[in-house]
């Protein structure tokens, strides 16, 4: 397992130039303490466009590049799951022209990125109330999800027509429907595991790190159940300006946090367990000189 983690870190370093900021940041990361699941609220497209006196759609177009680079970096790091908040249930309230532009951009992204997704063994999934999407968008989305379903690398969840409360409601209704079919509704007793296994993200670990761009200090109805113990990282960077540097800084900050889950601190646990990871070989020691 340790070799697997160092292998991905080496792949990232080989894609960077020694001495540049991203290389130094990557060199500072502990490959044994990377988040398995990163979730991102991609916010600030409209503000980015407004600052440049451009239409809001220009901000959405500019946001495609950071999506591509974030997916690539997470794949190189060896992150298992990346969940991106692409379109919320509340976004339908926006002007019709803007919403239609978002659908066109999504279709463009799907067509453009499929070859790279396949090349890099990335599996695309979609979460949300997908039945409400325009038929053509749904067909293209389903096509890419199906085409990448056998890939075994990074899982990218696109949250589309998504809402955290709606997801919990849908999970509870699924449980009730199954109980009715099985004739066990009279004895049905809910627990956390039952709800978790009926969420859109049932096949994924819960997020370890939640990143929000644009500086807003709110969760915006995103993965409400799953982020119970996630580390929150808010940056003032607007999404179109979000770079690999921003992502690596967020992961580095995550690694500085002491995740206790109600138990002992990491330092005390390391003293108690004396685990292999707590002994802390450096990246240079494992990989050797570049």
Topology:
Elements: H1 2-14, H2 21-28, E1 37-41, H3 45-51, H4 56-62, H5 64-77, E2 81-88, H6 96-119, E3 123-127, H7 135-147, E4 155-162, H8 164-182, H9 192-196, E5 209-212, E6 231-234, H10 244-256, H11 266-273, H12 276-279, H13 283-287
Parallel strand pairs: 1-2, 1-5, 2-4, 3-4, 5-6
Helix pairs in contact: 1-5, 2-10, 3-4, 4-6, 6-7
CATH superfamily of the domain at 35-162 and 201-255: Decaprenyl diphosphate synthase-like
Largest sheet: 6 strands, parallel
CATH second-level architecture of the domain at 35-162 and 201-255 = 3-Layer(aba) Sandwich
Distance between the termini: 22 Å
What is the topology, as strand order, of the major beta sheet?
3-4-2-1-5-6
Number of helices: 13
Number of strand elements: 6
Form type? globular
